[in-house]
Design brief:
Protein name: Glycosyl transferase family 2
Shape: globular
CATH superfamily of the largest domain: Spore Coat Polysaccharide Biosynthesis Protein SpsA, Chain A
Keywords: Glycosyltransferase, Transferase
Helix content: 40-55%
Largest sheet: 10 strands, mixed
Number of domains: 2
Radius of gyration: 21 Å
Number of strands: 10
CATH architecture of the largest domain: Alpha-Beta Complex
Distance between the termini: 51 Å
CATH topology of the largest domain: Spore Coat Polysaccharide Biosynthesis Protein SpsA, Chain A
GO molecular function: hexosyltransferase activity
Order of helices and strands: EHEHEHEEHEEEHEHHEHHHHHH
CATH class of the largest domain: Alpha Beta
Number of helices: 13
Structural class: alpha/beta
Length: 358
């Protein structure tokens, strides 16, 4: 790469994306910011993705291509982190694209001017039938001091459904990632690599910015929530997500730990019930037993992160979700595990009925 300065590194994992990668690369190639590097990580594609990549990036020195044996999206992103030279880091999926030729320039100038560690932005979600909708992280631009009150800040960021756990709708300060050794967990070990990554980044970041702009085109794959025929594997991954997502909580005060742990914990339990019952369609009674086992297995970790004298309220920015979480929290704190499992499964049943009626 001839240029000396790299302001922004964009990491693009690619696996058998021949249908989409051309449009993705075009959106990157058209970016007006020159001090940027695009790290294309070909993760052992068996189709003609690599041929398209080589053709579409020819002559543009901002593109650097790496080939590796198929190891999964987390390994590809981690390769990109290790090879990155930019002050800031972005992740783009190979079937998606950036919106507007000034997208990266705008984000770079915004993160420099606000001295933020992370900026989250809006996205356009496109369904397979061509329909689309806009998902905004905020109605207006907002600067959030994370370190002054992490529990309050979490309601506007990691515990705000609009903020999303995705990494593709954000730009990160690279030094926070490198200094604190923040990398992606393997998908075979956790239920959401992005969820754990953002949990870790949040602990060490000091300032976040939400912008109202829509800067990313996301291709929605219907029913993409991962199934696992092996329910033990789901339990294993949920357990790991809870444990690994909270591994840096030891640097927080007791009340901060409680305020951040419970939303992570209860959200993982909800996803667990959804995966086992709604998506894998295991019998109600079997799922109930599995959830109770998980609650018992995570009791020590929960006690470690829960200041019992700390009231848990307004856990997220979603009022309905807060009521649901507060009920679950109350039951679990009293070791009423069977009742907690019933509440989780009742939610899954309601969601199943709602989806059928849509």
């Amino acid at each position: 790469m001839m240029q000396n300065k790299v302001y922004v590194t964009v990491v693009v994992p690619v696996y058998n994306s021949a249908k989409f990668i051309g449009a993705c690369i075009e959106s990157l190639r058209n970016q007006t910011l020159k001090e940027v590097e695009f790290l294309i990580i070909n993760d052992g594609s068996s189709d003609n993705s690599l041929d398209i990549i080589l053709s579409e990036t020819k002559g543009d020195e901002r593109f650097i291509i790496f080939n590796q044996v198929n190891s999964g999206v987390s390994a590809a992103r981690n390769k990109g982190i290790r090879e990155s030279k930019g002050q800031f880091l972005m992740f783009v999926d190979s079937d998606d694209s950036l919106i507007g030729e000034n997208c990266i320039r705008y984000l770079y100038e915004k993160i420099i001017s606000t001295d933020a560690d992370v900026i989250a932005f809006g996205s356009k979600h496109v369904l397979s039938n061509g329909a689309s909708f806009i998902h905004n992280v905020s109605k207006h631009n907002e600067i959030i001091a994370l370190s002054s009150n992490r529990v309050a800040a979490s309601r506007k960021t990691i515990n705000n459904p609009n903020y999303r756990y995705s990494v593709w709708n954000k730009i990160y300060k690279s030094s926070v990632i490198i200094k604190n050794n923040i990398f992606f967990e393997s998908y075979s070990d956790v239920i959401s690599e992005d969820k754990v990554f953002n949990q870790h980044f949040f602990i060490f970041a000091t300032k976040a910015v939400l912008v109202s702009d829509t800067l990313y085109k996301y291709s929605v794959v219907e029913n993409s929530l991962s199934h696992s025929k092996n329910y033990e594997n789901v339990i294993y991954r949920v357990n790991n997500t809870i444990e690994r997502g909270s591994k840096f909580y030891f640097i927080l005060s007791p009340n901060e730990k409680s305020g951040l742990f419970w939303p992570l914990y209860l959200d993982c339990l909800s996803i667990c019930a959804e995966l086992l019952y709604s998506f894998n369609k295991l019998p109600y009674e079997e799922v109930q037993i599995r959830i109770v086992d998980l609650l018992q297995a995570t009791q020590a970790l929960r006690i470690q992160n829960d200041a019992l004298d700390s009231p848990i309220w307004k856990m997220t920015s979603d009022k309905k979700k807060n009521v649901f979480f507060m009920l679950l929290c109350s039951l679990i704190r009293r070791s009423a595990y069977k009742q907690a499992a019933v509440v989780l499964l009742s939610k899954s049943r309601i969601r199943m009925v709602w989806k059928k009626r849509r």
